[in-house]
Amino acid sequence: MNTKRYIEITQSQFDAALDMLEECLRNCPAKQWNAKVAKYEFWHVAYHALYCTDLYTARTEHAWAPHKRFHPKGRDELVGEYPSREFSKRELLAYLKHTRALVRDSLARETSRTLAGPSGFSWVPVTRAELPIYSMRHVQHHAGQLGAVLRRAKVKTKWKIRGAAK
């Protein structure tokens, strides 16, 4: 498969995963915002999925730069996996939009040569070609958790076959 086609397919599927996360955020009733999903709150699981996606759009772990709006305490925001404060639905939807753009930009930078190289993250020993798929699976895992919380609260969620370009 050529690089252009790989990027198109990967982007479409990543958009679908982000669409499903977005649907969970948009449809989350206020009373579920702090509902427990394993050891974290609903909003925190969404934040975690977004910041990991954000991180993996960087070329390397050292090249990642925190965004002041979404990481007010910089890299310290991610220490111990607990952000410094609760994020609102509006903030997380804005972070999702920002992250979606980062994914697009990251994939657009790839070449057949870079895709064959290392991920750039010491704890993720895969190629750059595998990294967005790894990241996408992480988003989908957490979207599934959030969707389960919503379904138990009688809120319907939908599966996406592919993402729509946004």
What is the average of the pLDDT values?
93
CATH class: Mainly Alpha
Annotation, overall tally of beta strands: 2
- Note the overall shape: globular
Percent of residues in β-strands:
under 5%
CATH homologous superfamily caption: dinb family like domain
Low-confidence stretches: none
Describe the overall structure:
The structure is a single chain. A hairpin with a 2-residue loop joins β1 (36-37) and β2. It is built from 5 helices and 2 strands; from the N terminus they run αββαααα. The protein has helices at residues 3-27, 42-56, 89-109, 112-116, 131-152, and strands spanning 36-37, 40-41. The chain is an all-alpha fold and 166 residues long. It has a two-stranded antiparallel sheet with strand order 1-2. The model has no long low-confidence stretch (mean pLDDT 93). The chain has one domain: dinb family like domain (Four Helix Bundle (Hemerythrin (Met), subunit A), Up-down Bundle). The chain is 53% helix and 2% strand. The radius of gyration is 16 Å and the shape is globular.
